[in-house]
Structure formats: C-alpha cells, structure tokens
Amino acid sequence: MSTPKRTLIIIDQAPYGSFEGREALDMAFSLAAFDQTVSILFSGPGVNWLRKGQLAADIHQKSVEKNLAAAPIFGVQALLANAADCELFNLTQDNLLEQVELVKLTPELTGQFNHITFAG
After folding, report:
1. What distance in Å separates the CA atoms of residue 15 and residue 94, rounded to the nearest whole number?
2. CB 42 within 8 A of CB 81
3. How do residues 71-106 score in pLDDT, each as one tens digit?
4. Are 115 and 4 in contact (CB under 8 A)?
5. pTM of the shown model
C-alpha cells in the first residue's frame, strides 16, 4: 500500500485586498473534498486570516473566519500558523481561531509534504 501524498498550501497574503489567498483556500477545500491530505500554513501577513472576531463588513468584505471554520468539514487536516509571524502581528493562541496550531517554519516541517503550493 502506498503512502498518501501530502500537500501543504502556504498562504502569505493578507486576508483582504486580493483574491490569491481565497483561491488557495478554495484549492485546499477542493483537494481535501477529494480525499487528498491537505494542510494550510499561514505565514507573513497571511497569519491575519486566523485572527478571531474579524470585522470585514467595515471594509465591505465577507469575513474569512467562517470559511476557515469549514476547513474540518471539507477534510483539511490542519490549519498551521508560523509562530514567528504571529508574534510580529501580535497574535497569540488567545486571539487565534481555536483549531490553529502554531508551528516553526523549518525544513523539517515542509519536508513532511510531497507537494507545496504558495498563494500569490
């Protein structure tokens, strides 16, 4: 029996202002819905996707918080956040979405995946 292929999608774009991140999220959901093993890593300004209590209506956008809450339903294995970038944006486990796992972005982490795709 072969080992399942694992895909890591990295979103390093802020959640509002461009569509690259949303397209990457759609791709992750599509892959996961077809039984692919997918995790999403948020880095750089992308960690702001994971902030609790976003008020996107103030900028006439829909909040990405609801989209991310659906990740487990679609079968996304993990929502990961680069801990160093979270620190830069004053994000702690207290103001991040509950299902987020803080990680250190290292070659060992990325080496666990067969495919890596960047948003943007």
Report:
1. 19
2. yes
3. 998 899 999 999 999 999 999 999 998 889 999 999
4. no
5. 0.89
